[in-house]
Sequence to fold (276 residues):
Amino acid sequence: MSDSEFLAQRFEAHRGRLRAVAYRMLGSGAEADDAVQEAWFRLSRCDAGRVENLGGWLTTVVGRVCLDMLRSRKSRAEEPLEAAPASAADPEQDALLADSVGVALLVVLDTLTPAERLAFVLHDLFAVPFEEIASILGRSPAASRQLASRARHRVQGAPAPHADLARQREIVDAFLAAARDGDFDGLLDVLDPDVVARTDAGVTTGAAAVAAGATRFAQLARLARPALVDGATGLVVLADGRPERALTFSFVRDRIAVIDIVTDPGRVSALDIGLA
Fold:
């Protein structure tokens, strides 16, 4: 076995854990795969023989990559809700990860700052010492501990997402009506202040930014129809009678907390869509 093959074998032994870390950090299977792949590129370019704790080294690298990606999301927060083709992902594995994380936790994690999210995920979910987290964040261990504590309080204090499908439908219908009318205030009424809208191209955060993006799509909203998307309350935009775009919603305190927008044809076709 060559050195490169041996290194690849060692990396594969850690891939599952690295992807789990990245998924909890990013909430996206495709982005998690990108982060893990970047970790492999960095490992293959360094002197791996000098790495004593490969698992810890790789976790640190993935943490830094995810932190950069989360900060990039924040810097693009004011971008319009446009979409681009997504990279391939494993829907079955994503579903298993989502089940293990829990929808409620993913919703709350999306409201944390990148630093809070990294500190909480790495320490509370993966038992990474604060000394290592501090090296990733460029802060002291005490400051990293404080970030994790603040995030922990928000996670523990967050209510579970609303489970009443009828009430969810009312909220989404109100969102759709406001989007069709370009009603900015009406959109703010149904959006959580820390709402996150995710597309294949990026992420928009905050009620004002998401509402502004939605008003720019008033014409498209007029083509949207209520639907259940993989069993979740959603909307679907049809073109020639076929789904072209799908939106799903997560809720906290009777408001929309997360909007996932899927436009890639392959991903849309794989969804279980039932028109309401």
Notes: The domain at 165-275 is CATH 3.10.450.50 (Nuclear Transport Factor 2; Chain: A,). The first strand starts at residue 191 and ends at 198.
